[in-house]
From TrEMBL:
GO terms of biological process kind: monoatomic ion transport
Entry keywords, A to Z: Antiport, Cell membrane, Ion transport, Membrane, Transmembrane, Transmembrane helix, Transport
Annotated transmembrane regions: 12-36, 56-79, 91-115, 135-153, 165-188, 194-214, 234-262, 268-287, 317-337, 357-378, 385-402, 414-439
Sequence similarity: Belongs to the multi antimicrobial extrusion (MATE) (TC 2.A.66.1) family.
InterPro entries named among the record's database cross-references: MATE_fam, MATE_MdtK, MdtK-like
Name of the featured protein: Probable multidrug resistance protein NorM
NCBIfam families with a match to the protein in the record: matE
Length: 444
């Protein structure tokens, strides 16, 4: 069997870093995957295409996060069985998960293209970019089942302690997407539609090649055709773990879409500016996000093995390491946001607008090292309902109201609107600390 990481024995920090490294690289490539669309469109098209891609990709990112969150239910369940030394049940978990996501994927493939105009209208897409935004959503929505398969592959292997295989799948997709964007946008001048076709095509190629690679790997469990069944017990457990995470990501994603809609109402430059800023922010948050995913796998295995003290020690180590990187990202984003946004567009007005939003988001880097590790910890423990609750409170008790008020009090200021994000993070951290104190006392 090929080497995978066992988090339940030996040192803590080194295995955690060995696992988090490929996760970080995969997230970086995933961010590059999304950024290339906007980068190429920003260089070879106009502000209308930039606005359409930024709004359309934000909607698709929200839908993709929901899918990824449901897959997290399977990842956690699989990780707990690995920790319990019952890896033989993995084939049934994966088989039932494949059946579940195939049904969901078929439904969304039909549903998303139908509601694409409504989504663009809800997002207050600028009139000049409305048609292109709708086209982007339709094309990507038609390939949603490929996106689901793409996320399934990563979820399965992270659950068994293998973070290198997902890195390979993302690398393949990133390379294919870069080639597709250059050909369709820069060479054939297809603009927004070219970026969308490149996105779906790259993930399709990645899934096919990844399947061929995975078929030659030795797994810690057997996966046979007879296991591809609708096992109600397993599917119920996947949904119990995954739905709260998906609901949280959906509602948190909606909160960011509300902010985008607020900004879209300001005008085309502000819309393009926040689209550029969001791409930069994905890179800024890479390290905390990698530790969040790593924490889920680390804690799930140790919970399954009954080693809760070890899970707590891993959490503290992850927070410390993540904070160091968070401080660096804060400095870079707060003082050099114009350089970062300038990577994605040559329009000076859009650069200035993007830098305003990045400056506010950089403040959040000092807090997310705590929050993201907390979320990974609670997901691994199986407390996904709590994760959902704190995420919803942060989004709708703070982020949306503050951004709305700032847009009214300080019209046109993306910096003040952006401050809503660190404000919501502070509330979520307070809730997570309270939950940690409760768990510590209960377990003792």
């Amino acid at each position: 069997m090929e080497k995978r990481i066992d988090f339940t024995t030996g040192a803590i920090v080194l295995p955690l870093l060995r696992f988090a490294g490929p996760v970080l690289m995969a997230l970086f490539l995933q961010a590059m995957y999304g950024a290339v669309d906007l980068l190429v469109v920003g260089k070879f098209a106009d502000s209308t295409d930039v606005s359409a891609v930024s709004t359309g990709s934000q909607i698709m990112a929200t839908l993709t996060n929901i899918i990824s969150s449901l897959c997290m239910g399977m990842t956690i369940f699989l990780g707990q069985k690995i920790g319990e030394k019952r890896a033989d049940e993995g084939g049934q978990i994966v088989g039932s998960g494949l059946a579940l996501f195939a049904v969901i994927g078929c439904f969304l493939t039909v549903f998303i293209p139908v509601i694409a105009p409504g989504l663009a209208m809800t997002m207050h897409a600028p009139e000049e970019a409305f048609g292109l935004t709708t086209a982007y959503i339709r094309i990507c929505g038609g390939g949603i089942i490929v996106i689901m398969a793409y996320n399934m592959i990563g979820g399965i292997f992270r659950g068994i302690g293998d973070s290198k295989t997902p890195l390979i799948t993302v690398l393949i997709a990133c390379i294919c997407n870069i080639i597709g964007d250059i050909l369709l946008v820069a060479v054939f001048h297809m603009g927004t539609k070219g970026a969308a076709y490149a996105t779906v095509g790259a993930q399709f190629i990645s899934v096919v090649i990844s399947y061929l690679l995975i078929s030659h790997k030795t797994l810690p469990f057997t996966l046979e055709k007879k296991m591809l069944t609708w096992n109600k017990r397993i599917i119920r457990r996947i949904l119990v773990l995954g739905i709260p995470i998906a609901v949280q990501d959906l509602l948190v994603g909606i909160s960011f879409l509300v902010i985008l809609a607020i900004v879209n109402s300001i005008g085309l430059i502000a819309s393009a500016g926040i689209g550029v800023a969001e791409k930069v922010c994905v890179f800024i948050m890479l390290v905390p996000m990698s530790f969040m995913q790593s924490m889920s796998a680390f804690v799930a295995q140790n919970r399954g093995a009954g080693k809760l003290d070890r899970a707590f020690r891993g959490f503290r180590a992850a927070v410390g390491i993540s904070f160091i990187f968070g401080a660096v990202m804060f400095y870079t984003g707060f003082f050099h946001g114009d350089l970062l946004s300038g990577v994605f567009t040559s329009d000076e007005a859009v650069v200035v607008a993007g830098a305003e939003y990045i400056k506010a988001y950089a403040i959040d880097c000092l807090f997310t090292c705590f929050l993201f590790c907390f979320i990974g910890f609670y997901n691994g423990m199986g407390y996904t309902t709590f994760v959902m609750a704190q995420g919803i409170l942060g989004a709708f008790a703070v982020r949306v109201p503050v951004s709305f008020l700032m847009s009214r009090m300080m019209p046109g200021s993306l910096f003040h609107i952006g401050l809503a994000t660190p404000c919501s993070t502070v509330l979520q951290i307070v809730l997570c600390f309270g939950g940690l104190i409760y768990i510590s006392r209960t377990k003792k």
